[in-house]
């Protein structure tokens, strides 16, 4: 403020700097003074044509500054005739940048960078050309608006003038700065008479600066006055809000110290948003996406980094949003920043010019006081660094983590040194984040990893203090996670960790934000997200936890209220287009991320999310209804009703991309334009939006105006011939109509022009060239016809429609795809990398609420405060060279845009305008739409109910690849022979009819129909996802099965014919999973119930399986049943109570009427989870608290309750007067209930008697019994189906399976048995012919990772390798453990008997291999060649290998995760083991897929390998030739493979659920899609006749037929 006061009203620069003394200024070359006859005073003359050698510099050195804050610079000079001059000015911006502004008659065109502006100068006497000054050049007063120049061209705010350099060939009288607009042609007397005063911002030129004018003469006749000024320079746009998050990273967001504001990047802009109001502030200055942010301890200084080749760091004053410093040290990929608590030290991690990791530490102590930032220390390293943080207790200490390392760093004596933390067996983990427990001991810090391990590190000893592993919950549903354990198993992949003084927050790959106590004993609070959580951050007060996801969501959890709030959602890819609903203030956007989203313009909250399998390209709102249309890249046009999320219509009238959509203003018609030149007209007054007319392909490079009601061509303009001087073919890109009063059609072209064309005659009225630096991508005209909007590359320009001057606004980091005015004309919206909302500060002369043009009422809105417009435009500058479409072969014409408006004279005429441009080729895609909701103020995200009865599909990371080569019927190389196990995760997924003997159940995506007498199986294949439930008709001739859809599609219900096993019909209706199915008593109706995401009851006809009626309810439904006494009656139970339903038939119409009844008060606040009818109109319901309620169906009244169990009841069955209950306490209970008349009369629970009870091995999920409840079949979550006989009070296992993941399956040498092992620590042995479980060996609290059989005849022993590093040998004959060995300190990953059975070879996760004696249990040899990389495979074969120069009788190999294979020769009787060959398959480091190797069973001298590499392939390596002799290409990365001894067959399993059978000799293959998850094991039998495949706990046995 003080500096501004002394500089008012102006500063005489030459006098202020005492130029004549040359102490504060410098001169170079030929600089002299002379007496000018025109000005009659002494002036400076600079001669010499080399600017670098002849100049005057003010001030003397670059470290000094003029510090002149005046807005306007006045230069009084005269260029030398026939010569060139240059003037350089360094201007400091408030953002911290120094911008050089140069002008010269030497420059031919305008050029700009982020820090330099170059302007061509046209002398006043020149004839319109830039060049040497003419001989008649006069003294000139140049006025430059410095604030305007920085604002318009760089979007910067002017601070002060730093330096001025006057170079070559000019005479200079003086320079001065001022905040006043001074007129040199006005004398003091004239100014006084005109009322000009400095208080009004104007005035005459000061006397010492004025040019002499003879009495009676005119100033303008003698001198030139050039004004480079915007007299009213307030920007016409002001950035208000941005919808978007992330860009370069989704792992970057900060809390302020107060905890009421979050700071996060949105591509190149940093956003500060108050969480209470959503108000945003912006930090603008980066030119590429922001990759890192960090605060100092009190949130006053903010540092940011940008990615790309311009990896600069900016330091900001957070409160003022101005840039304090900018510096560049790293070459690129700056990924991590960390401020010290004091703000005096800043640390960054990036890459140098050789792409090597470089850590730099800067001294930022003086940056807030205007000082420079210097490098304290830097270091190069080969270790991977994911994140790096400065310790809060010491500015010189840091900690970093990455793949395979955690390191401590310290700055000492100008050097940056590090030491690794001793990670012992955890050295191979992929560490993701580190966190300090602030406020406590400096010795305590935590590191998280992708394997779920949390390491507590002692800072002083540089060692691990404690290790914990976070595992998913063991309960079958997500709401109960009280029991968290830290044993071995599949851990939670933790992406981020944050620690407060009271708890620790983790964000993980499974989408959960979890809060833990500091001992990690249990989860006490969690929040589930739609995608992986990439960032968690606890606020300083510990009351809020922020979370960010990879899907672009940002929110926070309020710890005290346990409420979660979403702060920002965003598209994860570029936004292609938008449309605004002005009535409801909503905006819909289409994005490359294949979603269409609807947003509230005021709250910025996402309301709806529509997901597509291809790319939506264009969208348009209906002018009055809550309806929008969407066009996609495949040519489909769909119309959606937003309120009901219903697809109203779908049309494919275009072969190419839909590039334009529009509704007529009255909403009666809709129009669409295709990229190949087709145009379609639809009747939007009807719900189906049927097609009225289609106009075929039009010619290229033309603009058409068409009257669509008659489909007549009204006007055609060929823009390619408008520029006769151009050598290239011009074409139209975008079009729009101006308001009807002007009658203009505006066209942007590929030559970077805007053409004004008469909409009546097609005559070219005017044009503007070089509109943007690149081609104009969008344009729009305001409703009052005063302003024009254009977008080109990353900038938006606002033009005065009539006078053509423009203002440019930047902020986008990617090309802008569309820009338009909001319907109320008070805002501008631009989309590209994100959604930008700008305040439009136009000057409106009348109230917009009553403004009309030619009788047409404009959009309503309140009057705004006025912002003056430019009255003196800046010079028209040639801003860039243009990009033109190259010439070549033109094969097809493309529509590029669509614009609609009213006709010029009548409302009955509707015009549509299209542009066509040329392209070389067209790509077409096919898509389907799925509608889904997201949480918002009006649509809440469904919450899964807290009861086990509700089906939840098992979490899967695999996705099905449907583009596979499945074999033709009858030509299959494999036939599914048997399915081992039952899916205990399903609900009511078993049916049994005692009369017909039908017995069916599900395992994975297969329906298994088994003969209980013979054990033979039939398999119904039609699903690709996990089956949730089954239902059977009363005549047992039809079975229905339901499973979720793949890839986000709707669920699939298959209707099976029991006799021949064919699928007679399919239903795809429910959005989520299907919770329940039921057939009516007469089998005329079929009922389906959606899960909690889509709680809807749908009624279908079993004759046609057409939808008859549907009813949506407010809460989740758990069970449904038809009444056995009345076919029209049914009931449902759910979270909100009991629903009595009746079907009413009128002709062909069927209506489903529902009456909800609340739960009786005496049972408390519970959910009804199960129900069943008896034969006398009595309905029994079970609750999640263990109560059973009896209801009178006629009065819909509960007349009796009793406590039937201590847990949740999930199964209820009634036969006569006997009632069966099954619960999550594993109890199966049989109750005797009195006759219905006795219950009605007495209403007492004394008439309910517990007759029998059984304890099973898991929660009861399905049951089926005979008519008298004597015998039945019951399924549990343990994967077991039990035969129950109440008469004998016995239970027999019918079907057994693994509940958890199966890690290995192996045949015995004689194929009489096979063994499986799993995550639950069990080793199970089965008989091969009938697949019955013989014996199960269980080890508690351990996981069994691998198993093998002893090679002795009969396979007498099986050995398992466990997660505690032990081997256990079990003898089959005695069913007991024979020996326990402990050769490894870490988990065993592979195990194998030697070929003769003399030793056991085993390998651990640390890469060490052990050779142990199965007799003594001693470890006889340790092999460390693979140390550090987990072993994936060990295989032994008998082989004489004298041809290799070694003696012995066995060969064995080991493959490790680092893509290395070792081959060994051994003679164990002689204690010989020598390395035969070492194979290395180099590839980038990655965790997937595994490295696998095996000997060829036909030629053991051949090793087959597959793993991660440049190509997906199988490699055949010859040990004799020492090279790869053959390769077979794969379509997917192999997760497992097995080689058959018969037919040269190879089985390969992939993460895409594909089992591929390959014939190695020919490369011929077949694909099989019978699993619902990623394949992890495949194993041929020794004979090659059978094949086992495993996906999670699904075990399939195949009969091998061959190829």
UniProtKB/TrEMBL annotation:
Keywords assigned: Cilium biogenesis/degradation, Cytoplasm, Cytoskeleton, Membrane, Microtubule, Repeat, Transmembrane, Transmembrane helix, WD repeat
Example of a GO cellular component annotation carried by this entry: microtubule
Transmembrane parts of this sequence: 835-855, 911-931
Subcellular location: Cytoplasm, Cytoskeleton, Microtubule organizing center, Centrosome, Centriolar satellite; Cytoplasm, Cytoskeleton, Microtubule organizing center, Centrosome, Centriole
Pfam families referenced in this protein's UniProt entry, alphabetically: Beta-prop_EML, Beta-prop_WDR90_POC16_2nd, CFA20_dom, WD40, WDR90_beta-prop_4th
Domain WDR90 4th beta-propeller: 1301-1601
Sequence ranges assigned to domain CFA20 in this UniProt record: 1-179
Domain WDR90/POC16 second beta-propeller residue range list: 579-703, 711-839
Every EML-like first beta-propeller domain range: 1016-1236
GO biological process, one term: cell projection organization
Entry-linked PROSITE patterns: WD_REPEATS_1, WD_REPEATS_2, WD_REPEATS_REGION
Main location: cytoplasm
Keyword Methyltransferase: no
WD repeats: 568-609, 1295-1336
Stored InterPro entries: Beta-prop_EML_1st (IPR055439), Beta-prop_WDR90_4th (IPR055440), Beta-prop_WDR90_POC16_2nd (IPR055441), CFA20_dom (IPR007714), Quinoprotein_ADH-like_sf (IPR011047), WD40/YVTN_repeat-like_dom_sf (IPR015943), WD40_repeat_CS (IPR019775), WD40_repeat_dom_sf (IPR036322)
Superkingdom of origin: Eukaryota
Family as reported in the entry's similarity comment: Belongs to the WD repeat WDR90/POC16 family.
Function, as annotated: Microtubule-binding protein that plays a crucial role in ensuring inner core protein localization within the centriole core, as well as in maintaining the microtubule wall integrity and the overall centriole roundness and stability. Required for efficient primary cilium formation.
Cited PANTHER family: WD REPEAT-CONTAINING PROTEIN 90, WD-40 REPEAT PROTEIN
The protein's name in its UniProt record: WD repeat-containing protein 90
Biological source species: Oncorhynchus tshawytscha
Gene name, Swiss-Prot/TrEMBL: WDR90
